[in-house]
Amino acid sequence: MELIHVHGNSYYADGVLSVGVYLHPHKKTAIIIDSTNDKDGIKKVDKAVSQLGYQINTIINTHGHADHIGGNDYLQRKYDDLRIYATAFEKSFIEQPYLEPLMFTSGAAPYAQLKTKQLQAKPSIVTDVIPFEDHIRLIDGVPFHIVTTPGHSNAMINVMSPDGVMYGADALFGPAIVDKIGLLLFTDIEKTIQTLHKLKSLHESETMTAYVLYHGGVTEHMSDLIQQHIQGIQDAIAYFKNEIQIAGAIPFHQLLQQCMTHYKIPDHVAPYTFTHTVVHAYVSYLQQQAFVNLHVQNGTLILSHLE
Ligand SMILES: [Zn+2]
What we know:
By secondary structure, the protein is α+β, with helices and mostly antiparallel strands. The chain folds into 2 domains: 3-230, 4-Layer Sandwich (Metallo-beta-lactamase, Chain A), CATH 3.60.15.10; 247-305, Arc Repressor Mutant, subunit A (Orthogonal Bundle).
């Protein structure tokens, strides 16, 4: 694995997952942003950093999903004084990774199909809690911009290095994912829309010199990508509104079924549970918008259109 140079001391790992790497300008230490999905992934990043004569001493976790925290445990065991930064909400998921599959089974014991390393990382301890607000935080003496980007996960952050390189968590997905998946994993639609508009103005402000997609590396087409995300959400809102409006009243499970077909989501347990969560996110959004009313009838959750 190689480290790809972006600007100044800011790099990212040339892997399936673009782990952010910041080489300290005055010390031989490195700060990484997220840690791949497992020991094998992070070992390659660790080796690439070591080969340049640096040692990882800090992880900043953008959020607590397994593919962002999977290498934490390995590094925490290897380096005694390793620091791990995360916001308080995401800290819960990092320290108790069982919460992620649990979330997809409504808080019940997760199905076997969800007990995979893609969904449940090994636990690690967050040493430093980052307040969930936009601010500059000194990390190993380096001023990083912490930018809140909720929507995909509740208290997710993007991290911008002093070189203006924004490490983008899952606020934006790479073109390969956007082209393939019509209904992206966003759990709060209102917050996602706000986050996308925030990224747009940050992009236009020119304090940002590059944007590194965790799933896709540096993007040269950030405006287009943001627009694609916004359009995808608008299309989904229009789709759900239309289905509810045509029916007048529709059982939740029927809307979910139609949505699975519409978005060509594979008939497997894991994608079904993700879609279940995403449909809840859109219904919740439409309830906030006073578009839909929820009630239970004959043991079924019914969504009815509010005139
Ligand atoms: Zn994620």
